[in-house]
Amino acid sequence: MPAHPSFAGTPPFPEAARLALADPQLRANLARATATIRTKRARAVAERDDWEALRLAGAAIKDETLRDLPALLAQLEAGVTAAGGVVHWARDAAEANAIVVGLVREAGVDEVVKVKSMATQEIELNAALAEAGIAAWETDLAELIVQLGEDLPSHILVPAIHRNRREVRAIFEREMGRMGRPAPADLSDDPRALAEAARLHLREKFLRAKVAISGANFAVAETGTVMVVESEGNGRMCLTLPDVLITVMGIEKLLPTWRDLEVFLQLLPRSSTAERMNPYTSMWTGVTPGDGPQAFHLVLLDNGRTDTLVDPVGRQALRCIKCSACLNVCPVYERTGGRAYGSPYPGPIGAILTPQLRGINRGPVDAQTASLPYASSLCGACFEVCPVRIDIPEVLVHLRAKVVEQHGWRAHASEESVLMAAMGWTFRSPRRLGLVERAGGLGGRLIGRGGHIRRAPGPGLLRAWLRGRDLETPSRESFRRWWHRTGRHEDRA
Amino acid sequence: MRVAIFITCFNDLLFPDVGRAVVRLLRGLGQDVGFPDGQTCCGQMHFNTGYRDECIPLVRRFTDAFEGYDAVVTPSPSCAAMVRREHPTVAARASDQGRETGLADRVAALSPHVYELTEFLIDVLGVTDVGAVFPETVTFHPTCHSVRSLGIGDRPQRLLAAVDGLTLLELADADHCCGFGGTFAVKNADTSLAMGTDKVSAIVESGARVITSADTSCLMHIGGMLSRAGSPIRVMHLAEILASRTAS
């Protein structure tokens, strides 16, 4: 049975990042992979001269969905039920896991095959199944690598991005035999050989499994249709061969009408894998007698989504179609990788979605979660590539304000909050600012060398700056003093 | 036209030469520049770090100092973006709290008059060749706020291209963030430095002897790393190049 590492225990981002930054292989893999996919995405998007119109349409359709969510979910339920499926409503991870475990037990099996699903990672379904004595075999190649390596995913789309082919070979050689068909004895690290080894290892599971668990990329309320978009074909195997199909879907994945797919099936492939169209798109509506799974269960997952919906600025995060374009352009993510974010949703979207799913709109969150909105230089590259125009920088700043308000700096005077208060006080008065400038100029003369400060005692924030950079010595004469001395009447030195 | 300079808090204290260059440049173009001394800070640092309420008096002070001017010119795209895009947000928040009634309208009236330096030179004064002389090899870092918040485009490059004797060398991955990000530089110093390291490498690889930008906030970080590495590369704000009249 595979082990189940968890994101719990990840330190706050500054420290988690520091550890990740020190891993040269992770850095090299991420730099290469993100640079490659960035370029490909840009090319794929440039082919469309209506890309901006598609983005605006995508954002509008998602906002409409979020506005009418209760009615649309009811419509979806009616459609799925009429077509022979069963709909379950899960308030949170615990409820969702209990529902799924119950369904698998009802089917009388002790193993399931899984299609890659962010929602099931979010609720830690595999661990819950394991506790119930049920093995959950991941069938997406990268998820298989992560599972066999008893590892955590570091990217939404390519979860094993932190591994190189030599490591993958070693993991296959060491672990495949414990979970099923072993790797061939002479396995090389050639990607084709590795893919073939995975294919053979998985084949017996596809053909044997009676129950499959998937997520969903989209569901259409109008028709009761659920769909999975994928590259490898493992989804197709899991969605068609077993007797029972269980789909766990975040409630925000809904679309109102069939026609809306036209927009999203263009936005998603180009934004995620940089393809004009992905290889396998599978759609199913309930149950078709004699064809495919004869029992279909749709588990609708809330788990913090309605908490996110209540915030007028933060709710745009729910437009997300999990394409990962933002991860691939983020200069922070590129250097730290996903695990530093301590969540199955990393990168820019993770920094705004994770805190909201964890309840920041209701009240204070833990220190690790509170560090996520600050894991950004606010460069804005993410907003530029988001296919549904989520203004991630706007939401980051909005969530930072929540963190500050909830932290209540008057009660917990951190170094930062004291400094912010002092600077705010200084900036409220030009006279005070002038005095601070003179003090700064004097101080600079004392500790600066050649116009720069290299080392200084004092607050941690100053030391954090000086760790890798010099600091300009505050000027002997500030601009405003120079102006008052000379500038009013003529340009004198 | 009544023109005022908004020097910005960090230029005032750390880079007064940038302000002096702006004054020299604008006067050289026939503009009588004022410095309303009620000015202090646009509030960007507080706003972006989450201290929204602290911004309200700063927005009030900025508006008090500058309203009435036809043009408020600042050598900082990030501050210009803060004023134009977020002062209305802060004023609306103040209004929701029942404070500073009337501020929102005054902010709305002032915002269109606030310009980043290159916007003012090209869009308002209609000038691309400011008569500068600077025979050096220079590379240009565009800054995230310039590119994405203000949409400044290639105005800085056009101004640099018209400088006599200047050779503008391309900077690889120019639109990649330098890693400053305001308080990000100290709250996430390790990541900030990792990003800055790549920016500095690109600058060194460009072969230029001078790195310039429209924002000294980025240059504080980039320049601080160049200085720590003992690099001879000069760090200059765009205004200092544009105000240059003699061979450096």
Fold and architecture overview:
The complex is a heterodimer of chains A (493) and B (248). Chain A has 493 residues and is α/β, with parallel strands linked by helices. Chain A has three domains: 283 residues, Rossmann fold (3-Layer(aba) Sandwich); 93 residues, no CATH class; 73 residues, no CATH class. In chain A, the strands form three sheets. A six-stranded parallel sheet of chain A has the order 1-10-7-4-2-3, with helices on both faces. Chain A has a four-stranded mixed sheet with strand order 8-5-6-9. Chain A has a two-stranded antiparallel sheet with strand order 11-12. In chain A, a hairpin with a 4-residue loop joins strand 5 and strand 6. In chain A, helix 3 packs across helix 12, helix 9 packs parallel to helix 10 and helix 16 packs across helix 19. The longest helix of chain A has 23 residues. Chain A is globular. Chain B has a four-stranded parallel sheet with strand order 2-1-3-4, with helices on both faces. In chain B, strands 6-5-7-8 form a four-stranded parallel sheet, with helices on both faces. In chain B, strand 7, helix 12 and strand 8 form a beta-alpha-beta unit. Chain B is α/β, with parallel strands linked by helices and 248 residues long. Chain B is built from 13 helices and eight strands. The longest helix of chain B is centred in the middle third of the chain and has 20 residues. The relative contact order of chain B is 0.15. Chain B folds into two domains: 122 residues, no CATH class; 106 residues, 3-Layer(aba) Sandwich (Rossmann fold), CATH 3.40.50. Helices cover 52% and strands 11% of the residues of chain B.
